[in-house]
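hiii so um. not sure if this is the right channel but i have a protein structure encoded as tokens and i wanna go backwards to a sequence. like what aa goes where. can anyone help
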């Protein structure tokens, strides 16, 4: 069992409006990713909300058990990862894939390839690599969950990645979405081809 975690708790200050609700592929960033994960082999799925929680819940149909509220979202993305891991303790997944909501342009095939690389024993951390640059989503094996829980908040999950270079597998891909980090209105216009 490999869990899927969508990280959608941030304030979206540079965007000026909730990134989770930006229109994308006939839905929203969050709606698109959520539908993608629910159709994928990932189970269970968690969506971490914080800032704009009530507005997002009103506009995106989410199953109640899939939602995790992060009251500490102002502490950064790692706090959302940690909130999700707490919610998964009973399910005991063997790994989890982290999907930042501002990287919506992810294909089902990429998710399958990340899972396949993990199942083949390629590494305990699977990171998509395009043009020699690391992107998202990133898989972490359950053997690293405790380190994610205790990582320095200012460095986040990168701390775990840097601590274990020998356990990292870089999954080569040509998909542009792994590097498309949508933080500003200009980023969004580029994504939308405007």
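sure thing!! here u go:
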């Amino acid at each position: 069992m490999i869990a899927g975690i969508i990280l959608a708790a941030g304030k979206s200050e540079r965007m000026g409006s909730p990134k989770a609700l930006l229109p994308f592929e006939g839905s929203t960033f969050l709606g698109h990713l959520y539908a993608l994960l629910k159709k994928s082999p990932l189970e269970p799925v968690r969506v971490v909300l914080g800032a704009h929680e009530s507005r997002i819940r009103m506009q995106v149909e989410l199953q109640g058990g899939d939602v995790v509220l992060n009251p500490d979202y102002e502490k950064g993305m790692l706090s959302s990862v940690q909130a999700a891991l707490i919610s998964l303790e009973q399910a005991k997944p063997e790994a989890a894939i982290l999907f930042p909501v501002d990287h919506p342009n992810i294909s089902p095939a990429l998710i399958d390839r990340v899972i396949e690389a993990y199942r083949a024993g390629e590494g305990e951390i699977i990171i998509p690599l395009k043009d020699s640059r690391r992107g998202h989503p990133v898989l972490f094996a359950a053997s690293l969950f405790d380190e994610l829980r205790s990582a320095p908040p200012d460095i986040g999950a990168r701390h775990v990645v840097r601590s274990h270079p020998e356990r990292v597998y870089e999954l080569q891909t040509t998909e542009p979405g792994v590097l498309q980090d949508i933080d500003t209105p200009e980023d969004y216009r580029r994504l939308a081809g405007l």
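oh and Residues 108-119 form the longest helix (12 residues).
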